[in-house]
Every structure is written in C-alpha cells, then in structure tokens.
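To illustrate the input format used throughout this study, we show a single complete record. The first block contains the structure-token representation of the backbone; no residue identities are included at this stage. The design step must infer an amino acid for every position from geometry alone.
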C-alpha cells in the first residue's frame, strides 16, 4: 500500500528575494545542519524530526532574512523535550486522538497518552516522529530526503510504516513531499503534516 499524503509548494514572491547563490555541492555544516539552496532561497535542515531549522530569503533591500521560527542552536531541538513541535514532521498521527483510542477493521488500538493531562494522544505520543532522528537518504545542492521506519506497535500504532520527506528548493520556492508506505497487511493509522 502506497499513500501519498501531502504535496505542497510554498511560493516566495520574487519581489522579496534578490539573490541567494546555490553551492555547487551539498554541504553539512559543522553544527550538523544540512544546507540546500537555489536562486533566491537557502535552507538548513536537521535529522531531528526531519526539521527545517532556517529558511533564508533576501528582502527588497538585499538583506538576508531567516523567515522560520525556531532555535538558533540545532541541538536545542533534541535537548528540550518542551519544544512546541517547531518545524518538524509530527506523527505517526498529526493532531490529537481523543482518549488515545481508535478502531480500524474492528480492532481497537490504544496509543500513548501525552496531552490534555494524560487523556489524549498528540502527534503520535511522547516519542512522536518530530522527536526522533530521521536518516538522510539523499542530499543534493537543492534537495534533501529524510526517512524514518516506524515499527508495528510503536506508541500503540498498528503496522510498520516507512516514511520519506523530501524538501526541495527551486528559484524562490520551497516544496515539501511526504510519502508513507505500509509494509505489513495491517492497516496503519497515519496522518502526516509539517510544522
């Protein structure tokens, strides 16, 4: 079963971007951030949560601006369990599951209770996807792809799911593609988004 969950493109007005020059080769910065860029746009990404940590464009005065809310230090994402799901891929199920209980094909599943005073599940539980290190499986000057394997039963969710998130920069645009594959006969409960 292949499920394409979301394809989104965020266009940044050419009026806001003057020129950000792409590097000839993909780079991993000393702080662990992966850099990708294209004309008028440059982004830094980290494996923790498959998160974007910075997105730079130049304003009409030629001043480069980071337009992403987040931590300046990439290690803060993993060291602070209180981060408000900034810029990552929450999952396996984005949003809340009332009482941490749902039913698929007549089977009731109980997920990790981590929200609303321990009454509900938020973004896949306390070990949701935005709290895990993803694997970088591809990295080019203008694109990066992360992958995560979520095992059957993880945080109470059925079926093994292999997910891929690809971030691509084209002139003045940022594109996100999310793909999830169920690798078992169990029907998975998966709902992906990006913050």
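Output of the design step:
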């Amino acid at each position: 079963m292949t499920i394409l969950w979301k394809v989104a493109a965020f266009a940044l007005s050419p009026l806001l971007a003057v020129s950000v020059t792409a590097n000839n080769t993909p780079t991993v910065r000393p702080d662990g951030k992966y850099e990708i860029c294209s004309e008028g746009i440059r982004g830094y990404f980290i494996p923790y949560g498959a998160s974007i940590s910075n997105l730079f464009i130049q304003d009409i005065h030629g001043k480069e601006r980071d337009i992403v809310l987040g931590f300046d230090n990439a290690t803060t994402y993993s060291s602070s369990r209180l981060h408000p799901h900034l810029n990552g891929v929450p999952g396996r199920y984005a949003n809340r599951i009332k009482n941490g209980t749902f039913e698929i094909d007549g089977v009731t599943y109980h997920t990790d209770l981590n929200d609303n005073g321990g009454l509900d599940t938020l973004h896949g539980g306390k070990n949701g996807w935005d709290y895990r290190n993803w694997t970088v499986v591809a990295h080019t000057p203008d694109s990066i792809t992360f992958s995560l394997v979520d095992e059957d039963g993880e945080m109470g969710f059925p079926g093994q799911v292999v997910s891929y998130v690809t971030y691509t920069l084209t002139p003045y645009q940022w594109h996100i593609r999310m793909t999830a594959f169920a690798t078992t006969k169990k029907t998975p409960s998966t709902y992906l988004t990006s913050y």
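Structural context for interpreting the output: The chain has one domain: 2-182. The CA atoms of residues 59 and 141 lie 22 Å apart.
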